[in-house]
Amino acid sequence: xxxxxxxxxxxxxxxxxxxxxxxxxxxxxxxxxxxxxxxxxxxxxxxxxxxxxxxxxxxxxxxxxxxxxxxxxxxxxxxxx
Length: 81
Fold this sequence. Notes:
Elements: H1 2-9, H2 16-25, H3 32-46, H4 51-79
């Protein structure tokens, strides 16, 4: 994950949750709750053997989480490179 590598170079290390919180405090991501929800859903889908639940997570990824990554890319391009 690019975010964790970049933040590690800046001295921030730890779990994905810590990386997301650090990125939020640094202004790299704007919606900490949405990113934490995306992380939780990612963890859920890796352990989901229920097709209905997995498809729900995929729908969320398309509807909500994709935009988070677009915003992150734009933020990095604009302010962090």
